[in-house]
Amino acid sequence: MDLSKLRANGARLRASLEEMATIGATPAGGVQRLTLSDEDRRARDLFVKWLKELDLSVSIDEMGSIFGRRKGRNDSLPPVMAGSHIDSQPKGGRFDGILGVMGALEVMRTLHENKVETERPLIIVDWTNEEGSRFAPAMVASGVWAGALERDWVYARADKDGKKQGEELARIGYKGTEPATKWPTHAYYEYHIEQGPMLERQKKTIGAPKGILCLHWYDVYLTGEANQVGPTPMEGRHDALVAAAECILAVNTLPDRMKGNMVATVGEIQNGPNSRNIIPDKAHFTVDIRSWDDDHAIAAWELLKKDFNTIAARRGTPIRIEETWRCPHAPFAERLVQRVLDTAKALGYSNLHMVSGAGHDASYMNQVCPTAMIFVPSIGGRSHVEVENTSWEDCEAGANVLLHCLLATANEK
Ligand code: GLV
Ligand code: MN
Ligand code: MN
After folding, report:
1. What's the distance, Cα to Cα, between the start and end of the chain in Å?
2. pLDDT at site 1
3. What's the CA-to-centroid distance between 33 and ligand 2, angstroms?
4. Residue 6's pLDDT is what?
């Protein structure tokens, strides 16, 4: 057959996404499928069932990542991989991650029903814990697979209830036996929603990021002195939450002080004992700093650390700082990025060369093999929210770009 005429089935892709969206569905139209939760397990079970229907050889590694391998004509050649993640944010949307997994599945289904062979094997992957919301940091399974993170350190990371990541993997039945170790890979593509406003603003259908910003994560712990709020005078207090509030404002003004080229966010806070009539004696908050320039992000952190120490000393609230995670910025393989742009053009889709502010497993895969991503527009530029949305037409367009990028790359000798 004329492979250039091959197209993904948009209706089937939509049906798969809609079925996945029932697992962990939230009343406001999003999903809550936290990594290694029962919802994550149910979605994985469905995914594995779908993989088996395509006669793919399925394997699960010791980080719980699920791989479905399709034979190549020349099966000993390094494979081409594509995928993303099934887990979600606590109040996440129906597209983040799962679109890249269902999109790659739709490609496999299209090849299967049309009996299309490729020179190289193709592997679809669902990476465990991309989000990093339940267990920090993010992208741990691709990080271990790529050799950038230590398996046992990741296993030992605990959630807010003290449950360990390695134990939760075993509990849901997805602590596999295959070593989580990279193999020679020809290329990796990740299909994803943009999660920002650029494609919609510029009325483009397909985005091809030149790479991903660095992600630097920190955890800050402040200790104050608890007391009755009524009788205790304002002067002389050691209020951990007020110290945290001051620190948080310093984070928010950091990008301006650094003259831009970065974003900085506090997204999570715990306050103790969290009672309206007790002066807080414990505060924990997170810091997320992102930039295309790792050195700039680190210089910003050094400045911020000084601010934090000054604030803590002035308020008499001893501080402990954990430098939790640094994932360096990932400049993708230009040849593959160009292929995404050219493929979009050949299929008649408008396209944009851009940058990814969101983190993806593609960051770590970029350390293993030539990597690129395919973005489709997020309606209203909203993501990590229940109203996250992308038109079905755009979902189909992205799947077609993925299909033809995979075909071209998997047929390279
Ligand atoms: C991943 O979801 C991120 O934080 O960008
Ligand atoms: Mn994602
Ligand atoms: Mn996400």
Report:
1. 20
2. 84
3. 12
4. 98
- Report residues whose beta carbon is within 6 angstroms of any ligand 1 atom: 131, 138, 358-359
C-alpha to C-alpha distance for 80 and 183, rounded to whole angstroms: 11
Position 411 pLDDT exceeds 90: yes
Give the rounded percent of residues in the chain with a pLDDT score beyond 90: 100
Q: CB within 5 A of ion ligand 2: which residues?
A: 96-97
Q: What share of the chain is helix, strand, coil (3-state, %, to 5)?
A: 35, 20, 40
Per DSSP, 139 falls in state S
> At which residue do the structure tokens 């990597």 appear?
371
Backbone angles phi, psi at 264, to 5 degrees: -145, 135
Angle at 40 between CA 194 and CA 217, to 5 degrees: 55
Residue minimizing CA distance to atom 2 of ligand 1: 131
241, 283 contact by CB (below 8 A): yes
The CA 81 to ligand 1 mean position distance, Å, reads 21
In 241-363, DSSP assigns E strands to: 263-265, 269-272, 282-291, 319-327, 330-331, 351-356
pLDDT of residue 53: 98
Residue 379 has pLDDT above 90, yes or no: yes
pTM: 0.98
In order of 239, 271, 282, 311, the CA distances from 220 in angstroms are 15, 12, 11, 13
Look at phi and psi of residue 52 and say left if phi exceeds 0, alpha if psi is from -120 to 50, else beta: alpha
Residue nearest to atom 3 of ligand 1 (CA): 359
Helix, strand, or coil here: 55? coil
Could you tell me what percent of the chain has a pLDDT over 70? 100
Cα 360 to averaged position of ligand 2 atoms, centre (Å):
6
Which atom number of ligand 1 is nearest to the Cα of residue 96?
2
pLDDT at 87: 98
Residues 384-397 pLDDT 10s: 999 999 999 999 99
Pick the closest to residue 197 from 358, 400, 89, 57 (CA basis): 358
Q: Residue 174 region, left (φ>0) first, then alpha (ψ -120 to 50), else beta?
A: alpha
